[in-house]
UniProtKB/TrEMBL annotation:
A cellular component annotation (GO) from this entry: striated muscle thin filament
Superkingdom field: Eukaryota
Keywords for this protein: Cytoplasm, Cytoskeleton
Compartments where located: Cytoplasm, Cytoskeleton
GO molecular function, one term: tropomyosin binding
Chain segments annotated as transmembrane: none
SUPFAM superfamilies: RNI-like
Pfam families xref list: Tropomodulin
Stored InterPro entries: LRR_dom_sf, TMOD
Protein name as catalogued: Tropomodulin-4
Gene3D superfamilies on file: Ribonuclease Inhibitor
Lineage of origin: Eukaryota, Metazoa, Chordata, Craniata, Vertebrata
Amino acid sequence: MSSYQKELEKYRDIDEDEILRSLSPEELEQLDCELQEMDPENMLLPAGLRQRDQTKKSPTGPLDRDALLQYLEQQALEVKERDDLVPYTGEKKGKPYIQPKREIPAEEQITLEPELEEALAHATDAEMCDIAAILGMYTLMSNKQYYDAICSGEICNTEGISSVVQPDKYKPVPDEPPNPTNIEEILKRVRSDDKELEEVNLNNIQDISIPMLTELCEAMKTNTHIRSFSLVATKSGDPVANAVADMLRENRSLQSLNIESNFISSTGLMAVLKAVRENATLTELRVDNQRQWPGDAVEMEMATVLEQYITSVSPRNNEFYRTAFATPFRPP
C-alpha cells in the first residue's frame, strides 16, 4: 500500500454528521458558500450565478432613486475629461484608394456585327431590359421587370435596368384607427343585460387587464342579448381562455366568438373546445394565429367537435360545421 493510500485510510471512519453538528452557524454558512457551484465564464447566466454574494454590509438607509440619479449626474459633471493622447487635427493621412482599371483580355472581347453594335449603342434602358429577359440574364433586372417582359412579349416596362437597385414603390397603407370602445361602460351594459347591446368588439385594445377581461366573461354568463363577442389581439392568455370556457358553459345567447391573434396555449384552447360541447347556441368560433402551435391534441379535439356536429341532424349544428373553425396557425 502506497503512502498516499495510507494517508487516506485515516479518513475512512470519519463521522461527517458529527463534524457538521459541531460547526457553528458562521462556519456552516461559509461551508455552504464554498459548496456553491459557480460558472464565472458563462456570460449568459445572471451575476448571482457567476460569482458568490459578498455583500454583507447592511443598508445605511432607504433607497432614494431620485437622489441617487442626481448624485451620479453631479459626479459625472465634476469629473474632468481626459485629454486625447493624439489630438485630432482633421488632417487626412494616406492616399485615397483608386480602383485600378481592368483590361479585358483578348479572348474575352466580343465583336458583334456592325448592325448589332449600332442597335445596342442606341438602345434605351427598357429595350436593354427586354433583351436581357429574352437572353435569360434575369440577374440584371428586378423580378417585376423580368416577368413583365416574359409575360407581355413586348417592351412595356420603361423603368430601365438601373431600377434593379431601386425598390418597387407601394402606396402607404394608413394604420387602422384605435378602437374607441369604453371598456368600463361596456362592462356595465353587459352586467345590466342591455337589450340594445348585441355585439362586444374589443379588438386591438392591448391595455386591457386580465382581471377586467375575466370580469367581462363573468358578466357574459348571464347575458341574454349579446350575439357576438370578439377579443382579437388583446394579449389574452390562458387565464382569459379559461374564463371564456366557463362563460360558454353557462351562456345561452352567444353565437359568434373570436379570440384570434392572442397568446393562448394548447391548454387554453383545449379548455375552450371542451366548453363548446356544452354550449347549444354558438355557431362560429375563431381561434387562428396564436403565439404557438396548439399541437396535435388540440387539432384532434377540433376534429372531434366538428364530427360531433356533422353527424347531428340539428340545423343549428349544420350551420356550426360551415362556420366554426379557422385553422390554427402552424409555424414554419
